[in-house]
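User: Run a structure prediction on this.
Assistant: Running it now.
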Amino acid sequence: MEKKENGLDVKQSGRVINGPTNPMVTPLLNDLYQFTMAYAYWKAGKQSERSVFDLYFRKNPFGGEYTIFAGLEECIKFLANFNLTDEEIDFVRDSLPGCEEAFCDYLRGLDCSDIEVYAISEGSVVFPKVPLLRIEGPVAVVQLLETPFLNLINYASLVATNAARHRFVAGKSKLLLEFGARRAQGPDGAISASKYCYLGGFDATSNVAAGRLFGIPLRGTHSHAFVSSFMSLDEIVDKVLRSSDGKSTCEDFICLVQTCLTRIQNSSSLQGIFSETNQSELAAFISYALAFPNSFLALVDTYDVMKSGIPNFCAVAVALNELGYKAVGIRLDSGDLAYLSAEVRKFFCAIERDLKVPDFGKMIITASNDLNEETVDALNKQGHEVDAFGIGTNLVTCYAQAALGCVFKLVEINNQPRIKLSEDVTKVSIPCKKRTYRLFGKEGYPLVDIMTGENEPPPKVGERLLCRHPFNESKRAYVVPQRVEELLKCYWRGNADEAREELEPLKELRNRCIKQLENMRPDHMRRLNPTPYKVSVSAKLYDFIHFLWLNEAPVGELH
């Protein structure tokens, strides 16, 4: 017997759809007015009226001209496990003055078996006004999805976009490490940030829980506390280290390290750079290397980078090399990162040359210390030797912009298109159930996204098409697409037997994000004054928007 939840078959192609990652994501993760509206719909006998809502955003974040769509998987998990418990229903009843018991019975029978969700594939590059999701179903049920969906998509898309922007400025060759758990807005902020930063192009996280949940590679070394916790070399009791091939044993690794340090001090290229190093720091490095000889990476700025941290690290790394191990590299967490990384690289290259240690000059230099998009860009302009960036606070908190601003608007009910008007034209909604296409040009780049009415014929390759700005009559252009991609696909169809898109592994979403960003025109991607990407409607939809606008807007009267 296949597992059922809330009357739904929650298997997707033989795979059970688990609940949301955060167990707090329940139907009660909602604004009160969703329940007051549901009750009012029910009282008016409108609760089952077929509605269509669009979820979209109005402006790209961070001053850019693109956004990464994320959070869809969590929405589908929420749908698949949608259920109000008796305790939750009791709380809702107590929160609605005068609530009738029959409404509670109605809530007990609610599920998402009559809901359909059409969405752009998660990890896609997306743009303002274009629906990320189209949600169809009984109006009272769909209203209860609004707040959870917005909660699950707003931050996910914002932080994924932030990660993608950091990836763009860092370049393809650099490792990007998400170090934000300790500064994130609570446990869910930390977990979500790790997941969606990976989707946006980061390579690894320091967050162990996220690594377990999502299979994200883990990276990390030690803190300044570990270094300063050591007082002397005498604290190291076990000095024995077997060689990497297991054929020999070094009985006194401390002695081997001290010998290597002396060799470094006597190196012709490095004379005068340092004299005596901090021995407690050396003790910490030796202890850490004994624990992790295959992955030794040290934080070198506890005392002095060039006069102590780097010489001590190199002594341990050379000693490990003599036993067949290869140290990973170092992390810089303070100071002039451009200058220090260059000096460290010179030091490493001198060791490789003078002590004949193969590839020593290629060891990884990781930089951290409150990095953000601007500081990474500045480092690039200065010139640096950093191989990996550890980025935390500014990344996961989205310090440059607090929210994306997705909205959830009714566009059709009982097959009747609806429009939301505003004196601010950017807040006018685009009515009716729509289909959305991405049109590609001769060079393979996306040219424009176009929305059409549901029953309009789709754009065809090689056929000239008029694309119009939804609200500005003078902005229009003909396009002859070389490729046409329909964006909205069915990801949830309740209990219907029709096929729907499967949820993809996180790595596939990440690959989609990276691939689509690489396929964007460079002027849309640049940090300074990027070219806006065009979002349009068909001529027929344009005419309908303005017909409905005039029909719904009250006519003024002059006295």
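Residues 265 and 275 are 7 Å apart (CA to CA).
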